[in-house]
DNA sequence: CTCCCGATAT
DNA sequence: ATATCAGGAG
């Protein structure tokens, strides 16, 4: 487990690396953000951003998604992958918005997770990015980076990772730190080829030191 | 736990 | 060819 001092070091360094880290999914309101995050499951946000301009131009309101035949919606998001379940979830989500929430995305996380296709991670993103609530959404990047650095254990669930991060990061820094973890994971500590050689966090990184040792490099 | 799934990087 | 991508539902 990392000490408090190590966490401060990590937050400082990734802050220097990615001072302007923020949500990269194109959106102009909470509704669009929710759709974009739902679409982003197991898919790069870069690809989501290729689809959403046309999508958001065609579908403005929940009613627009409800009225279109599902085959047509599937076709509009086909390139994203997992398109059949995502199209179904979007339709169910919009139906619920109209029936239970006056057509608006709820701000409360406990309400957000009741929406089809919206789990804990998506709810955290919407609450944080759209409504400014403190939250740490643990996606594949945050999970991988936290485990490589040694902030949590390899066997920890995403919920356990989230709890650990919330405990070790001051609440007022949750949202910024969360985005910096994402950027660090996406552009530097990449899944397939982490840049340990040029990593400012190497001296506090469990996995990085292990990889270096394996290559016979003294850290 | 498995399934959903196309696009892209390695 | 295979791994991975801002996961969630059943």
TrEMBL record:
Cofactor needs: [4Fe-4S] cluster
Query: Keyword set for this entry?
Result: 4Fe-4S, DNA damage, DNA repair, DNA-binding, Endonuclease, Glycosidase, Hydrolase, Iron, Iron-sulfur, Lyase, Metal-binding, Nuclease
Instruction: Kindly give the PROSITE patterns that the UniProt entry links to this protein.
Output: ENDONUCLEASE_III_1, ENDONUCLEASE_III_2
Task: Give the Enzyme Commission number.
Answer: 4.2.99.18
Record InterPro entries? DNA_glycosylase, Endonuclease-III-like_CS2, Endonuclease3_FeS-loop_motif, Endouclease-III_FeS-bd_BS, HhH-GPD_domain, HhH_base_excis_C, HhH_motif, Nth
- Cite the binding residues for [4Fe-4S] cluster: 189, 196, 199, 205
Cofactor note from UniProt? Binds 1 [4Fe-4S] cluster.
Any single GO molecular-function term of the entry would be: class I DNA-(apurinic or apyrimidinic site) endonuclease activity
Per UniProt, residues of the HhH-GPD domain are: 39-187
SMART domains given for it?
A: ENDO3c, FES
Q: Which Gene3D superfamilies match?
A: Helix-hairpin-Helix base-excision DNA repair enzymes (C-terminal), Hypothetical protein, domain 2
Main function: DNA repair enzyme that has both DNA N-glycosylase activity and AP-lyase activity. The DNA N-glycosylase activity releases various damaged pyrimidines from DNA by cleaving the N-glycosidic bond, leaving an AP (apurinic/apyrimidinic) site. The AP-lyase activity cleaves the phosphodiester bond 3' to the AP site by a beta-elimination, leaving a 3'-terminal unsaturated sugar and a product with a terminal 5'-phosphate.
Record family assignment: Belongs to the Nth/MutY family.
How is this protein named in the record? Endonuclease III
**Which organism is this entry from?**
Evansella vedderi
């Amino acid at each position: 487990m990392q000490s408090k001092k190590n966490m401060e070091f990590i937050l400082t360094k990734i802050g220097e690396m990615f001072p302007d880290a923020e949500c990269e999914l194109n959106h102009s309101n909470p509704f669009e953000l929710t759709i974009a995050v739902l679409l982003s499951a197991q898919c790069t946000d870069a690809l989501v951003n290729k689809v959403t301009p046309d999508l958001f131009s065609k579908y403005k309101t929940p009613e627009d998604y409800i009225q279109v035949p599902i085959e047509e919606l599937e076709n509009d998001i086909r390139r994203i992958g997992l398109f059949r379940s995502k199209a179904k979830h979007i339709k169910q989500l919009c139906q619920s918005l109209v029936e239970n929430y006056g057509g608006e995305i709820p701000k409360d996380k406990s309400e957000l997770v009741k929406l089809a296709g919206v789990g804990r991670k998506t709810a955290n993103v919407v609450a944080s990015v759209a409504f400014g609530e403190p939250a740490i959404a643990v996606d594949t990047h945050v999970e991988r980076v936290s485990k490589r650095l040694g902030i949590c254990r390899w066997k920890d669930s995403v919920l356990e990772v989230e709890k650990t991060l919330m405990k070790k990061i001051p609440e007022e820094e949750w949202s910024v730190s969360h985005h910096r973890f994402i950027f660090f994971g996406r552009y530097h500590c990449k899944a397939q080829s982490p840049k340990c050689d040029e990593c400012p966090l190497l001296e506090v990184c469990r996995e990085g030191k292990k990889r270096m040792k394996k290559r016979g490099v003294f850290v």
